[in-house]
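Chapter review: from sequence to fold.
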Amino acid sequence: MVVDNESVDSDDVAAVDCIYYESLLLDHPDHLLRGTNTEVTSPSQHPLAQQIYQLTVLFFSSTSSVSELKVGNAIHIGDGLFLTSAHLLRMPHENLNRVHPRIFAYSGLLPRPHLYDISMGNAQSIQLSILSYLSTPGCPLPRGQILSPDTDIPSSTNLCLLRVTCPSDTPSNEGYPVPTYFPTNIRDARVQFLGINQTFRLSRSLLKQWRLRGASEEVHRVLGTLLPGKLSTTRGKARYVCEEGGGVVLHSIPATSSASGSAICCGRELYGTYFTPTRRLYLII
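The C-alpha coordinate string follows.
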Protein backbone atom coordinates (compact mmCIF):
# COMPACT_ATOMS: atom_id res chain seq x y z
CA MET A 1 0.00 0.00 0.00
CA VAL A 2 1.13 3.54 -0.62
CA VAL A 3 0.25 4.63 2.90
CA ASP A 4 1.62 2.19 5.46
CA ASN A 5 0.40 1.58 8.99
CA GLU A 6 3.18 3.67 10.46
CA SER A 7 1.89 6.72 8.62
CA VAL A 8 -1.72 6.43 9.74
CA ASP A 9 -3.20 6.10 13.20
CA SER A 10 -5.39 3.09 13.86
CA ASP A 11 -8.40 5.36 14.31
CA ASP A 12 -7.60 7.19 11.07
CA VAL A 13 -8.20 4.32 8.65
CA ALA A 14 -10.08 6.68 6.32
CA ALA A 15 -6.71 8.14 5.28
CA VAL A 16 -6.00 4.87 3.46
CA ASP A 17 -7.49 4.44 0.00
CA CYS A 18 -10.36 2.16 0.99
CA ILE A 19 -12.36 2.50 -2.22
CA TYR A 20 -9.79 1.94 -4.91
CA TYR A 21 -7.60 -0.83 -3.55
CA GLU A 22 -9.66 -3.99 -3.89
CA SER A 23 -7.66 -6.08 -1.42
CA LEU A 24 -8.10 -3.60 1.40
CA LEU A 25 -11.76 -3.07 0.59
CA LEU A 26 -12.53 -6.79 0.55
CA ASP A 27 -10.68 -7.28 3.83
CA HIS A 28 -12.45 -4.36 5.47
CA PRO A 29 -15.77 -3.61 3.72
CA ASP A 30 -16.92 -1.69 6.80
CA HIS A 31 -14.15 0.86 6.23
CA LEU A 32 -15.70 2.39 3.13
CA LEU A 33 -15.34 6.15 3.13
CA ARG A 34 -18.68 7.88 3.66
CA GLY A 35 -18.98 10.89 1.41
CA THR A 36 -20.90 13.98 2.53
CA ASN A 37 -20.56 15.90 -0.72
CA THR A 38 -22.67 18.99 -1.37
CA GLU A 39 -23.41 20.02 -4.96
CA VAL A 40 -22.09 23.45 -5.98
CA THR A 41 -24.20 25.20 -8.61
CA SER A 42 -23.40 28.87 -7.96
CA PRO A 43 -20.32 31.00 -7.20
CA SER A 44 -22.08 32.07 -3.99
CA GLN A 45 -21.69 28.53 -2.62
CA HIS A 46 -17.89 28.49 -2.78
CA PRO A 47 -15.38 31.29 -3.53
CA LEU A 48 -13.46 29.09 -6.02
CA ALA A 49 -16.48 27.62 -7.82
CA GLN A 50 -15.89 29.64 -11.01
CA GLN A 51 -12.32 28.38 -11.32
CA ILE A 52 -12.90 24.60 -11.23
CA TYR A 53 -13.02 22.89 -14.62
CA GLN A 54 -13.64 19.39 -15.93
CA LEU A 55 -10.51 18.36 -17.81
CA THR A 56 -10.36 15.88 -20.70
CA VAL A 57 -7.13 14.72 -22.35
CA LEU A 58 -7.69 12.79 -25.58
CA PHE A 59 -4.63 10.90 -26.83
CA PHE A 60 -5.05 10.02 -30.50
CA SER A 61 -2.65 8.66 -33.07
CA SER A 62 -2.12 9.98 -36.58
CA THR A 63 -1.12 6.48 -37.73
CA SER A 64 -4.00 4.39 -36.35
CA SER A 65 -7.56 4.58 -35.08
CA VAL A 66 -6.47 3.86 -31.48
CA SER A 67 -7.23 6.60 -28.97
CA GLU A 68 -7.44 6.97 -25.19
CA LEU A 69 -9.31 9.47 -23.03
CA LYS A 70 -8.24 10.60 -19.57
CA VAL A 71 -10.55 12.63 -17.36
CA GLY A 72 -9.72 14.84 -14.40
CA ASN A 73 -10.05 18.36 -13.07
CA ALA A 74 -8.12 21.59 -13.53
CA ILE A 75 -8.01 24.79 -11.50
CA HIS A 76 -7.85 28.17 -13.22
CA ILE A 77 -5.28 30.11 -11.19
CA GLY A 78 -5.59 33.32 -13.22
CA ASP A 79 -4.58 34.86 -16.58
CA GLY A 80 -5.46 31.73 -18.57
CA LEU A 81 -3.21 29.40 -16.55
CA PHE A 82 -4.59 26.09 -15.25
CA LEU A 83 -3.15 23.77 -12.61
CA THR A 84 -3.73 20.00 -12.77
CA SER A 85 -2.11 16.64 -11.97
CA ALA A 86 0.87 15.76 -14.18
CA HIS A 87 -0.06 12.08 -14.47
CA LEU A 88 -3.11 13.07 -16.55
CA LEU A 89 -0.65 14.11 -19.28
CA ARG A 90 1.17 10.77 -19.28
CA MET A 91 0.40 8.48 -22.22
CA PRO A 92 -1.56 5.40 -21.10
CA HIS A 93 0.54 2.90 -23.09
CA GLU A 94 3.21 2.53 -25.78
CA ASN A 95 0.78 1.40 -28.50
CA LEU A 96 -0.05 4.98 -29.44
CA ASN A 97 2.34 6.15 -32.17
CA ARG A 98 2.79 9.81 -33.12
CA VAL A 99 0.38 10.90 -30.43
CA HIS A 100 -1.31 14.29 -30.59
CA PRO A 101 -3.13 15.18 -27.36
CA ARG A 102 -6.25 17.31 -27.36
CA ILE A 103 -6.73 19.03 -24.00
CA PHE A 104 -10.00 20.75 -23.15
CA ALA A 105 -11.45 22.32 -20.01
CA TYR A 106 -15.14 22.81 -19.30
CA SER A 107 -16.54 24.90 -16.44
CA GLY A 108 -17.85 22.85 -13.55
CA LEU A 109 -20.75 25.29 -13.12
CA LEU A 110 -22.17 24.60 -16.60
CA PRO A 111 -24.56 21.72 -17.33
CA ARG A 112 -22.16 18.97 -18.32
CA PRO A 113 -22.49 17.38 -21.76
CA HIS A 114 -21.11 13.95 -22.62
CA LEU A 115 -17.37 13.69 -21.93
CA TYR A 116 -16.77 12.90 -25.61
CA ASP A 117 -18.35 16.23 -26.60
CA ILE A 118 -16.01 18.06 -24.23
CA SER A 119 -12.95 16.18 -25.49
CA MET A 120 -13.76 17.09 -29.11
CA GLY A 121 -14.15 20.76 -28.23
CA ASN A 122 -17.77 21.87 -28.13
CA ALA A 123 -18.77 25.53 -28.18
CA GLN A 124 -18.15 26.05 -24.44
CA SER A 125 -14.94 24.02 -24.11
CA ILE A 126 -11.61 25.83 -23.68
CA GLN A 127 -8.64 24.29 -25.49
CA LEU A 128 -5.42 24.12 -23.48
CA SER A 129 -1.78 23.32 -24.15
CA ILE A 130 1.00 22.12 -21.85
CA LEU A 131 3.21 24.89 -20.49
CA SER A 132 5.44 23.12 -17.96
CA TYR A 133 5.71 20.51 -15.21
CA LEU A 134 6.95 20.88 -11.68
CA SER A 135 10.36 19.19 -11.78
CA THR A 136 13.14 18.47 -9.32
CA PRO A 137 16.90 18.57 -10.09
CA GLY A 138 17.06 14.78 -9.93
CA CYS A 139 13.97 14.22 -12.06
CA PRO A 140 13.62 16.75 -14.89
CA LEU A 141 10.42 16.53 -16.92
CA PRO A 142 10.07 17.73 -20.53
CA ARG A 143 8.67 21.20 -21.07
CA GLY A 144 5.51 21.52 -23.11
CA GLN A 145 5.27 17.83 -24.08
CA ILE A 146 3.16 14.86 -23.09
CA LEU A 147 4.89 12.31 -20.87
CA SER A 148 5.86 8.83 -22.02
CA PRO A 149 4.20 5.86 -20.27
CA ASP A 150 7.37 5.00 -18.35
CA THR A 151 7.92 8.53 -17.00
CA ASP A 152 8.48 8.49 -13.26
CA ILE A 153 6.59 11.32 -11.59
CA PRO A 154 7.81 11.90 -8.01
CA SER A 155 5.01 12.08 -5.49
CA SER A 156 5.92 15.62 -4.42
CA THR A 157 5.99 17.02 -7.99
CA ASN A 158 2.82 15.65 -9.58
CA LEU A 159 1.79 19.02 -11.00
CA CYS A 160 1.35 20.40 -14.51
CA LEU A 161 0.69 23.94 -15.65
CA LEU A 162 -1.55 24.40 -18.69
CA ARG A 163 -2.45 27.55 -20.60
CA VAL A 164 -5.25 28.56 -22.95
CA THR A 165 -4.44 28.05 -26.62
CA CYS A 166 -6.52 31.02 -27.72
CA PRO A 167 -6.12 34.16 -25.55
CA SER A 168 -9.73 35.17 -26.21
CA ASP A 169 -10.83 32.05 -24.27
CA THR A 170 -9.16 33.24 -21.06
CA PRO A 171 -11.69 32.96 -18.20
CA SER A 172 -12.41 35.77 -15.80
CA ASN A 173 -9.94 36.16 -12.95
CA GLU A 174 -12.80 36.89 -10.57
CA GLY A 175 -12.58 34.58 -7.59
CA TYR A 176 -9.12 33.22 -8.49
CA PRO A 177 -7.38 31.11 -5.80
CA VAL A 178 -4.70 32.35 -3.44
CA PRO A 179 -1.79 29.83 -3.29
CA THR A 180 -1.11 29.15 0.38
CA TYR A 181 1.36 27.09 2.39
CA PHE A 182 -0.20 24.11 4.10
CA PRO A 183 -0.09 24.48 7.93
CA THR A 184 2.63 21.91 8.62
CA ASN A 185 2.41 22.38 12.38
CA ILE A 186 -1.22 21.21 12.57
CA ARG A 187 -1.76 17.45 12.78
CA ASP A 188 -5.45 17.38 11.82
CA ALA A 189 -6.00 20.48 9.70
CA ARG A 190 -9.49 20.89 8.25
CA VAL A 191 -9.46 21.13 4.46
CA GLN A 192 -12.03 21.26 1.66
CA PHE A 193 -12.29 19.28 -1.55
CA LEU A 194 -13.78 21.09 -4.55
CA GLY A 195 -14.04 19.19 -7.80
CA ILE A 196 -15.95 16.76 -10.02
CA ASN A 197 -16.05 13.00 -9.47
CA GLN A 198 -16.90 10.57 -12.24
CA THR A 199 -18.98 7.41 -12.05
CA PHE A 200 -16.86 4.65 -10.54
CA ARG A 201 -16.81 1.53 -12.71
CA LEU A 202 -16.95 -1.69 -10.71
CA SER A 203 -15.47 -4.91 -12.04
CA ARG A 204 -17.64 -8.02 -12.11
CA SER A 205 -15.25 -9.91 -9.85
CA LEU A 206 -15.33 -7.11 -7.29
CA LEU A 207 -19.12 -6.92 -7.36
CA LYS A 208 -19.31 -10.70 -6.86
CA GLN A 209 -17.06 -10.48 -3.82
CA TRP A 210 -19.15 -7.67 -2.37
CA ARG A 211 -22.38 -9.63 -2.91
CA LEU A 212 -20.90 -12.59 -1.05
CA ARG A 213 -20.13 -10.27 1.85
CA GLY A 214 -23.56 -8.64 1.66
CA ALA A 215 -21.98 -5.24 1.03
CA SER A 216 -22.97 -4.57 -2.59
CA GLU A 217 -25.87 -2.19 -1.88
CA GLU A 218 -23.82 -0.31 0.70
CA VAL A 219 -20.96 0.17 -1.76
CA HIS A 220 -23.28 1.63 -4.41
CA ARG A 221 -24.88 3.90 -1.81
CA VAL A 222 -21.53 5.19 -0.64
CA LEU A 223 -20.33 5.87 -4.19
CA GLY A 224 -23.56 7.76 -4.86
CA THR A 225 -22.80 10.18 -2.02
CA LEU A 226 -19.82 11.43 -4.05
CA LEU A 227 -22.27 13.02 -6.53
CA PRO A 228 -20.59 11.74 -9.74
CA GLY A 229 -20.72 14.15 -12.67
CA LYS A 230 -21.43 17.20 -10.52
CA LEU A 231 -19.25 19.94 -9.09
CA SER A 232 -19.27 19.27 -5.37
CA THR A 233 -17.45 20.04 -2.16
CA THR A 234 -16.78 18.19 1.07
CA ARG A 235 -14.45 18.41 4.07
CA GLY A 236 -11.83 16.21 5.66
CA LYS A 237 -8.73 16.10 7.84
CA ALA A 238 -5.18 16.37 6.55
CA ARG A 239 -1.62 16.52 7.76
CA TYR A 240 1.77 17.26 6.21
CA VAL A 241 4.36 14.51 5.78
CA CYS A 242 7.93 15.28 4.71
CA GLU A 243 9.37 12.95 2.07
CA GLU A 244 12.57 12.79 0.09
CA GLY A 245 12.42 15.43 -2.61
CA GLY A 246 9.49 17.31 -1.08
CA GLY A 247 6.40 17.06 1.06
CA VAL A 248 2.96 15.59 0.59
CA VAL A 249 -0.24 15.80 2.58
CA LEU A 250 -2.13 12.71 3.70
CA HIS A 251 -5.85 13.27 3.95
CA SER A 252 -9.19 11.56 4.52
CA ILE A 253 -11.35 12.87 1.69
CA PRO A 254 -13.25 10.33 -0.44
CA ALA A 255 -13.35 10.78 -4.22
CA THR A 256 -13.19 8.76 -7.43
CA SER A 257 -9.97 8.25 -9.35
CA SER A 258 -11.02 10.77 -12.03
CA ALA A 259 -11.09 13.58 -9.46
CA SER A 260 -7.33 14.11 -9.87
CA GLY A 261 -6.52 17.80 -10.23
CA SER A 262 -9.37 18.95 -7.98
CA ALA A 263 -8.73 21.72 -5.47
CA ILE A 264 -7.75 21.06 -1.88
CA CYS A 265 -8.37 24.35 -0.20
CA CYS A 266 -9.82 26.40 2.63
CA GLY A 267 -12.05 29.06 1.14
CA ARG A 268 -9.95 30.89 -1.48
CA GLU A 269 -6.71 29.53 -0.02
CA LEU A 270 -5.44 26.82 -2.37
CA TYR A 271 -3.11 24.25 -0.77
CA GLY A 272 -2.69 21.95 -3.75
CA THR A 273 -4.32 19.46 -6.10
CA TYR A 274 -6.01 16.18 -5.34
CA PHE A 275 -4.35 12.97 -6.48
CA THR A 276 -6.72 10.13 -5.72
CA PRO A 277 -4.88 6.85 -6.32
CA THR A 278 -2.41 7.53 -3.51
CA ARG A 279 -4.88 9.47 -1.38
CA ARG A 280 -2.51 12.42 -1.29
CA LEU A 281 -2.50 16.00 -2.44
CA TYR A 282 0.51 17.71 -3.92
CA LEU A 283 1.65 21.05 -2.58
CA ILE A 284 1.74 23.95 -5.01
CA ILE A 285 4.39 25.95 -3.11
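Two observations follow directly from the output. Confidence is low (pLDDT under 50) at residues 1-31. The CA atoms of residues 272 and 283 lie 5 Å apart.
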